[in-house]
Automatic annotation (TrEMBL):
UniProt KW Cytoplasm keyword: yes
Keywords attached to this entry: Cytoplasm
UniProt-annotated location(s): Cytoplasm
Source superkingdom: Bacteria
Name this protein carries in UniProt: Universal stress protein
Pfam families reported in the protein's UniProt record: Usp (PF00582)
Length: 147
């Protein structure tokens, strides 16, 4: 099977950058388009009294957005240096897995490459796994990079 459009979801973790490197190598080999996305989720404030912390929420989202924009711009340059057609997208207000699936559908991706911590047992149960959720919900192939 050949791929024409790779989606790479990233966050601030080194694992994301390992997925970016794999996507970069594969995109060069297959001469395909890449979309790099970052999801800004509401998760840190679930169950918190919004009115008491509204300024903190606003600051959090503004900083998260700025960090995501800088991260995506930096990653985009890596692809452009190698002559790879790349686009970036920021998704807001949904769970990371839901955002990834939505962007994959929206851009017509036919492969998702993402990193995973490879947690197991209790750590996976407590911390959840975005990669696991995407893997089970995605209608397209998902390549998981474990670091």
């Amino acid at each position: 099977m050949t791929y024409k459009h790779i989606l790479v979801p990233v966050d601030e973790s080194p694992i994301s950058y390992a997925a970016v490197e794999q996507a970069l190598a594969l995109a060069k080999t297959l001469d395909c388009q890449v979309t790099v996305t970052s999801v800004i989720a509401v998760d840190p404030f679930v169950g918190v009294d919004f009115y008491k912390i509204a300024p903190a929420v606003t600051d959090y989202f503004m900083q998260a957005e700025k960090n995501a924009q800088l991260r995506l711009a930096d990653i985009k340059q890596s692809f452009l240096r190698d002559g790879i057609d790349v686009d970036t997208k920021i998704i807001r207000g949904v769970s990371p897995a839901e955002g990834v699936i939505h962007v994959a559908d929206e851009v017509g991706a036919d492969l998702i490459i993402m990193g995973s911590h490879g947690r197991t047992g209790f750590k996976k149960l407590v911390l959840g796994s975005v990669a696991q959720a995407v893997l089970t919900q995605s209608p397209i192939p998902v390549l998981i990079i474990k670091v």
